[in-house]
Each structure stands twice: as C-alpha cells, then as structure tokens.
Amino acid sequence: MADLQKKAHALDTADELGKHREKFALDAGTVYLDGNSLGALPAHVPARMADVITREWGELRIRSWDESGWWTAPERIGDRIAPIVGAAQGQIVVGDSTSVNVFKAVVAAARLSADDRDEILVDATTFPTDGYIAESAARMTGHRIVPVDPAGMAAAAGPRTAAALVNHVDYRSGRRHDLPGITAALHAAGALAVWDLCHSAGALPVGLDAHGVDLAVGCTYKYLNGGPGSPAYLYVAERHQAAFDSPLPGWNSHNDPFAMTPGYEAAAGVVRGRVGTPDILSMLALEAALDVWDGVAIEDVRAKSLALTDFFLECVRAYVPEGRVTSVTPEAHDERGSQTALACENAPAVMAELIKRGVVGDLRRPDILRFGFTPLYVGFADAERAARVLAEVLADLPA
Length: 399
Ligand SMILES: Cc1ncc(COP(=O)(O)O)c(C=O)c1O
Hints:
By secondary structure, this protein is an alpha/beta fold. The chain has helices at residues 2-14, 45-57, 64-67, 73-81, 98-112, 128-141, 153-156, 179-188, 238-241, 280-289, 298-319, 347-356, 380-396, and strands at 31-32, 92-94, 119-123, 144-148, 161-167, 192-196, 215-218, 233-236, 325-327, 339-344, 359-360, 362-364, 368-372.
C-alpha cells in the first residue's frame, strides 16, 4: 500500500495537468469519479452567471440579445468546442439535447444519401436514446434500422447502407470504437458516418475533420463541465452544409429570422442546425466553463487519462481480492475511453457504500461500477484512494 501511495505522490508531483484542479470547486474529502456523467463545477462559473443574471438579464434585458451576444451564442460556443474535437471553425452549433441532435443528424444523413439506400446501421450497444430516435428517424424517412456491433460495422456497410450511427466510446463498458477505421469503411461503401461523442469529447482526441466524419453530436455536461442539462452540439462537416436539410427547420435557422416570412429558407452554414430560441442561461454557463480548456492540449489530457486508468487498475489488482471485481473495460489503450467499468456482485450496495465513504462513481444496472477519470481535476492519489476504499467496502460487504 505504501509503495502505491508513494508512486501516486510521484505521479501527481510530475503531472503538468494537475495545476488545473484548482480551477474547479471540489472538496478535499471526496474523490469525484463521476465526471463522465456530470462534470464538476468550474470555480469561476457562479460569478459569471451572477453577472449574466443581474446585469445582462436584469439590467440590459432585451438589449442583451445583441449587446451581450446572446443571439450568436450557439455558433460562437460551437467554435469554442471545435478545437477540442478536432474541427475547424464554422462546423459546430450548440443547442438542444443530444437526443434532439441525434434526430437532426440521422434524418439529415438519410436525406443526404442516395434514394436507393434504405438501411441505417445503428451501434447495437448504443446508449438507448440514440437507438430509439434512430428507429423513429428511419421510419419517417423510409429506411430500416439494422443493429450492428461496432466491431462489425465496417463489414456490415454495403450498397444499401445510407448511414451509420455509432458511439465513439461505449457508455457502459468504456470501450473506444475505431472512429477512423469505421468512418473510412462507411465512406468506401458510399455511406455517411454519424458519431455520438458524448463519452469522448474532452477526454481524448476525436479528429472529426482529420478522419472525414460527416455528422456528429455530443453532450457538454460530462467532460466539458457545462452543468446539468447544458446544451448539446451538432457537427455538420462543411462539405455537407449546403445540402443539410434539417427535419426541425425552426425560425432560428432561417436565413432572415426577423423577416418573419411564412416560407422557410435555410441559413447558410452550420446555423441551419439551430431550431428555436436558445436556452441562454445554460449556454452561457457552458461558455464560461469552456475557459478551463484555455492552454490545454487534448493529447495531454489523453496521456494522463490512460495513465490514471492504468494506475487505478494496478491499485485495484493490488488491493482487491481476486474474483471480487472484473474489469469490462479493454486493457489495450486504443480500445479504451476515460472510464473504468468493473463488474461486481451486489454492485448497487457496493456503490452506495463507496459514495458514503467519499468515493463517488456511479452504477449501471445490474452489475457495473463505473469510475470516470477526468484528467483536469482527478489525480493519481484519488485513483489510489478510490481503489483502497473499494477494497475496504468489499471486505465489509462479503460476496
Ligand atoms: C452516449 C450518449 N448518447 C446520448 C445521451 C443522451 O443525451 P441527452 O439526455 O442530452 O439527450 C447520453 C446521455 O448520457 C449518452 O451518454
């Protein structure tokens, strides 16, 4: 135990990203390993929100749509997210939930594809909302859904495939799927690639432009720390924007919204992914939260994330008796996101007790303990403590 604590100390001392921890409101008594579900609060956000509410809303009122930049917030904040996911400016718009953006993206992909392609492949292990919505989108556009395990996605794409919807990192196991390879295989088959980045954006390099992704969606309340229910985003590659045909053509995506004309005419660019009035308070909390990324390279975040998850597993192996937990997250670095998922008997009781003892992870029923590692505010001593407390809990709750 002492050896691993010493090692944790040495790793934390050498860790350049550790300095960002002070940017977050965290209490020393808790190890927060749930940033893959709800990111921690950046410490400066409350003061910024107080200003938004008291001055921009309270004093400037309606003038803030122009004077405080509220109207253009969806595109402006999209451009702040762009470098984190490897996208050039002008391709990301923020707004609505991930679920709603999945709908926009899947319908738009179906409309962008050739008429004789009638299948939409969907990650068979997907987060449920994507599957529900893709099924409805397929029904509306005259397509049929084909569930495919991401490992078989490349082989499954063929002349009938219009598009595929795939999760970059699996929400349950933490498995990272091969975004470059699957995207290339889909393109070779003449199909479009739509990616869900909820569990990868802010945790590892995505390379949307470099890998030629067509459309992508993601949430901002996990690794981007935007706050509960903060708006999601939609990426539309520049080459598709002129033909992007939104199924939700609200007035905010109109070419001249204040002309209030009865006929719809889509705005140029990614703005056509907007729908209605943006949820400004959440948007501006997200915009402020993104300040923590200034001067941070996503490659450094990835390197620390892999080191943290490796070290956590090393500690688990050292402290937890054989057979009590089994990692369902792949060991290989290129198959892993930024969480460790441990299958465990009696997982609900184990997680409840962990949380009582100050180690906050979460549970995916029936038997998965999830521990998310957010390199900007989680350190190696946290990983060691989490494994140690897990061993103590398991000792007190016999199998
Ligand atoms: C991979 C994935 N996709 C979609 C969603 C749903 O997002 P929302 O509730 O913002 O629509 C989540 C939520 O956690 C998710 O993890």
